[in-house]
Write a structure and sequence with these properties.
The chain has 327 residues and is of the alpha+beta class. The chain is built from seven helices and eleven strands. The chain has a domain of 192 residues: Nucleoside Triphosphate Pyrophosphohydrolase (Alpha-Beta Complex), CATH 3.90.79.10. Strands 5, 6, 7, 8, 9, 10 and 11 form a seven-stranded mixed sheet that branches. A two-stranded parallel ribbon has the order 1-4. The protein has a two-stranded antiparallel ribbon with strand order 2-3. This is Nudix hydrolase domain-containing protein.
Length: 327
């Protein structure tokens, strides 16, 4: 996303206004799989569709109709027949942070475009429209109406901590990539349990939680599983991480994510921060282990050739640019 945002003169890490968002062709990828499917092919399903776009292992799978790139914007006319889909888990949830559907119950009133302190329903992309009592995805058609697998109508906010270090040889020297002649960065990656894809260890902002706290909580839950540490070492390590996350970090991006769960009425937005340990002093020494939603966690080289979940590759490219590292 960064690459094409900057092409439109929009700096990453800045709040994007409504005028700017209108200039962004967000849907450069197939909405089913996030890859470069050819929408002109004579099929109405995505060749790369994965169950995670539309269902989980234990739920019915629904394949989205493909929206050709030039028909994504609401302003273009299109014979559009989206599929209504809200997962059973979301429909039957009684959790406080899962919305009830105002289309089904006229008594449900949701404070759209506001932060009522329980939930921030504001979008980084300005005021979104309410059509038929539910928000309209500001980035266009997705092929699905309803909430899919997302708990909120409108924006669902997440946070992505990008923890980086230089790749070093056994003598501690930075390793230079032979083709770009630039040093190689490594980031803390996870393999997601739901899609099996490589990802940044991000997660949803909880009710009443600050984004800065989400960054720290998600990093700890998904990558720090301390099987070998005694209580004292664990305490010291957590204190160091807390200090770094609260006092350092570069904001890389905030806004819409090309997430497989997005629908016409619910979508993901994130804030991504980079925490870089350039001198191998603290974060770089962490021996990461998978926990929570992560099958496993590990240090992985930053490279344009690695395929990652949602918009994560674009965030990492921005990090590589900032540190003048290999991509
Ligand atoms: C992505 O989904 C965000 O960039 C973030 O990494 C992630 C949050 O969702 P969960 O990991 O909590 O499912 O859009």
């Amino acid at each position: 996303m960064g690459q094409f945002l900057s092409r439109f003169g929009i700096r990453l890490g800045t709040r994007i206004n409504e005028h700017e968002i209108n200039r962004i062709p967000i849907h450069h990828k197939c909405r089913n799989c996030g890859q470069g499917c050819d929408p002109t092919k004579s099929t109405n399903t995505c060749v790369n569709a994965k169950f995670t776009r539309t269902g989980t292992k234990d739920q019915v799978s629904i394949i989205r109709p493909i929206i050709p790139n030039d028909k994504v914007r609401w302003s273009t006319s299109f014979d559009y027949h989206p599929i209504e889909f809200t997962s059973e888990k979301i429909r039957t949830s009684t959790k406080e942070y899962v919305d009830r559907d105002p289309r089904q119950d006229p008594n449900v009133q949701i404070p759209w475009n506001l932060d009522d302190r329980l939930c921030d329903r504001r979008s980084y992309h300005g005021t979104y429209k309410i059509i038929g009592r539910v928000p309209q995805n500001p980035c266009g058609r997705t092929g699905i109406t309803g909430r899919g697998h997302l708990g909120h109508f409108g924006p669902n906010h997440a946070a992505d901590p990008i923890v980086t270090r230089w790749k070093r040889d056994e003598n501690g020297q930075e390793i230079i990539h032979p083709s770009t002649r630039k040093p190689i960065l490594q980031f803390v990656a996870i393999r997601r349990k739901d899609t099996n894809e490589l990802a940044i260890p991000g997660g949803m902002v909880d009710k009443k939680e600050k984004v800065t706290d989400t960054l720290q909580r998600e990093f700890q839950e998904e990558t720090l599983n301390f099987p070998d540490l005694d209580e004292r070492s664990k305490h010291n390590l957590l204190a160091t991480i807390k200090d770094i996350f609260e006092n350092g970090g570069i904001r890389i991006y905030c806004g819409y994510v090309d997430d497989p769960r997005n629908t016409d009425n619910s979508w993901m937005e994130t804030t991504a921060y980079n925490f870089h340990d350039g001198k191998n002093e603290h974060l770089a020494k962490i021996n990461v282990h998978g926990g929570s939603d992560a099958l496993c966690a590990f240090w992985h080289d930053l490279s344009g050739e690695v395929s990652l979940f949602a918009s994560h590759s674009e965030f990492l490219q921005r990090v590589a640019d900032i540190h003048r590292a290999h991509w």
